[in-house]
Specification:
The complex is a heterodimer.
Chain A (H helix, E strand, L loop, with lengths): L5 E2 L2 E3 L3 E15 L3 H11 L12 E8 L10 E8 L2 H16 L6 E4 L7 E4 L13 E5 L2 E8 L2 E6 L1 E17 L2 H15 L5 E2 L11 E3 L8 E3 L22 E9 L2 H18 L5 E5 L10 E4 H5 L6
Parallel strand pairs in A: 2-16, 6-10
Antiparallel strand pairs in A: 1-2, 3-5, 3-6, 3-11, 3-17, 4-5, 7-11, 8-9, 9-10, 11-15, 11-16, 12-15, 13-14
Helix pairs in contact in A: 1-2, 3-4
Chain B lengths: L2 E5 L7 E2 L5 H4 L4 H6 L1 E4 L2 E4 L4 E5 L5 E4 L5 E2 L9 E5 L11 E8 L12 E6 L19 E7 L13 E6 L15 E4 L15 E4 L11 E2 L5 H11 L14 E6 L7 E6 L1
Parallel strand pairs in B: 1-6, 2-7, 6-8, 8-9, 9-10, 10-11, 11-12, 12-13, 13-14, 14-17
Antiparallel strand pairs in B: 1-5, 3-4, 15-16, 16-17
Classes of the chains: A alpha+beta, B mainly beta.
Chain lengths: 310, 268
């Protein structure tokens, strides 16, 4: 029998989200105006929803004002996460090279403080696109590369620090129907995006094809999360869904630190609870692997309790 | 312990003062400092012959007086702070690799020569070949920061390879000649042949525009991002550099007689 705790009518499962250590970095993309910085950021974080098949998970963290960027132009901060430092290096080079360097007027800088982690190449290898015409400048111990391109020059900081991040924080929103689930998820993601240090890498921050590890087919490493599929509620013996749940949506969270993920999850839960069960999201749950795989456990009821620490 | 060295009388001959560093003196008593011998002409003469040695306050080594016959003041400084009140001779801060040397006065030739790191600040004028190379060396200054509040003589930053030189006053002829890389910012006017033979590096003219040689090409495109990074970095040196980020810049690439990847940045 499940222990039931309701807040404003919303049931919070006595469970936890299990998250993993990932390699992470923050990049700052600037441009002549925010529209072009957005174009580059959206493009650079495209096809980066899950490490299962994308190589990395990435997303826009927030937009930056002119007083927050190294070159005094508007910018966008993006976060990238991968399972290994080697893969992250590959993804940074590929995405910045193809999506940022190509975008008119952009420049790219490390978004984490110097010394925050191991430095990996940002502009160090991309500079060779300059075919020998590239030049560099060291300003206060930081090297920048200037690569001639057709609109002037592309400026890229030589390296970016990579830190240990946390990937795989999640919330499962169990709702009366699709409209209620979408509205709840949208409200939750909107609240979660007000913070810093975390991204929700799926489209709109929301994933409908939540997965479990493994499959009946040997070639697949992940398959549908049948325990939370409403269409299988009456078919699979281990379904987690009760009567009346017709739609489940998941929000996956990656953060630069455990506290960033916790803060985002707390904001998401609070947004759902504030709307109340009458808005259609009746239960919040989370995915885990029994606590045996991931070192970070985010207990929903602890996060739903009034915050006592920042 | 720290010391204050007050010059009692100027030496008859030139003195090599490179031994007077904070690291060397802080482990010595005042008597030991007085008995320290410095090369002067063909002799080695005790410090006490010229200086009153008094206890200092803080960790810095202080020197005061007309030290224009003392060469290589702060040479080889790797750590610690030196404050000099008065003019110094040649090669002040020669081969510095760290620490901070402030000269409240002028310096003669070769100030900051072969400097590799640290911070050298001269409140007066400097003579020729500051931040340049030692005779026979291929590379001049290769790191650190040289700030000159007064004027500079000829061949400032000759063969400079890395680091930053900020000159608030006027520069003499051949500034940044044969420059390999690094940044030279000039707040005043500039003599003839600026950037002669420079291969890479940046020379910023925050004051009067120089006569640009025909071996430099006017670059048509913008370098706004780089300019903003550089201007914001130079702003820490105060006027006239603090407002550079609000100015437009014209970029000349050169010296095309050599590698041609250097640049003269003329502000307006």
């Amino acid at each position: 029998m499940r222990d039931i705790e309701r807040t404003n009518g919303v049931e919070i499962d006595d469970t936890f989200a299990e998250a993993f250590t990932m390699k992470a970095t923050r990049l700052v993309i600037t441009a002549r105006d925010i529209a072009w910085a957005r174009h580059a950021a959206v493009s650079a974080t495209g096809l980066a929803t899950s490490v299962i098949a994308c190589g990395c998970e990435a997303g826009i963290e927030r937009e930056l004002g002119e007083d927050e960027t190294p070159d005094g132009r508007p910018g966008v901060a993006i976060l990238l996460f991968a399972m290994s430092g080697k893969e992250l290096v590959k993804q940074i080079e590929r995405r910045v090279g193809q999506c940022v360097m190509t975008c008119p007027t952009t420049a790219v800088f490390a978004g984490l403080p110097q010394g925050a982690g191991e430095d990996v190449a940002l502009g160090r290898n991309l500079r060779f696109f300059g075919d020998g015409w590239q030049i560099s400048k060291v300003l206060q111990e930081t090297r920048y590369w200037r690569v001639p391109v057709m609109d002037g020059e592309f400026v890229a900081q030589e390296s970016t620090p990579v830190v240990k991040g946390v990937g795989g924080g999640n919330l499962l929103l169990l709702a009366d129907d699709t409209d209620a689930a979408l509205a709840g998820a949208t409200a939750a993601v909107s609240a979660m995006r007000r913070g810093q240090g975390a991204i929700m890498p799926f489209p709109g921050g929301v994933v409908r094809s939540g997965s479990k590890v493994g499959s009946k087919y040997p070639g697949l490493i992940a398959s549908t999360n049948d325990a939370f599929c409403p269409s299988l509620a009456c078919l699979v013996p281990r379904s987690e869904l009760g009567q009346g749940v017709r739609c489940v949506l998941e929000i996956v969270i990656d953060g630069l630190a455990e506290a960033d993920v916790a803060k985002a999850m707390r904001a998401g839960i609070a947004a759902i609870v504030e709307r109340g069960a009458q808005a259609g999201v009746r239960r919040i749950s989370a995915g885990n692997y029994g606590g045996k795989l991931g070192p970070f456990h985010f207990h929903l009821r602890a996060l739903a309790a009034p915050a006592t620490a920042p | 312990m720290s010391h204050r060295l007050l010059l009692r009388q100027a030496p008859a001959l030139r003195v090599d003062a490179r031994l007077l560093s904070p690291a060397t003196l802080q482990v010595l008593s005042a008597d030991e400092v007085r008995r320290l011998k410095l090369p002067s002409g063909r002799d080695r003469i005790e410090v006490g012959e010229w200086f009153d040695v008094r206890p200092g306050d803080g960790d810095a080594l202080h020197m005061a007086g007309d030290l224009s016959r003392f060469d290589a003041v702060g040479a080889g400084l790797a750590d610690g702070v030196m404050e000099v009140h008065g003019p110094v001779g040649d090669a002040a801060g020669l081969g510095m690799s760290g620490g901070r040397l402030t000269i409240h006065g002028g310096a003669r030739d070769l100030a900051g020569c072969a400097m590799r790191g640290g911070w050298l600040e001269v409140h007066g004028d400097i003579a020729d070949l500051a931040a340049s190379a030692l005779p026979g060396d291929l590379d001049g200054m290769s790191g650190g920061t040289l700030v000159v509040r007064g004027r500079a003589g000829a061949r400032l930053a000759d063969r400079m390879r890395r680091g930053t030189v900020v000159l608030h006053g006027d520069a003499g002829d051949f500034a940044a000649s044969r420059m390999v890389a690094g940044t030279l910012a000039i707040g005043g006017g500039c003599g003839a042949h600026a950037g002669w033979g420079m291969r890479r590096g940046s020379v910023v003219f925050a004051g009067a525009a120089p006569a640009v040689a025909s071996t430099f090409a006017d670059v048509a495109s913008d370098a706004d991002v780089f300019w903003q990074l550089l201007a914001r970095d130079l702003a820490r040196f105060g006027p006239p550099f603090s407002e550079l980020k609000h100015r437009r810049v014209t970029r000349f690439a050169g010296d095309l007689a050599v590698q041609g990847k250097g640049e003269l940045l003329v502000t307006r």
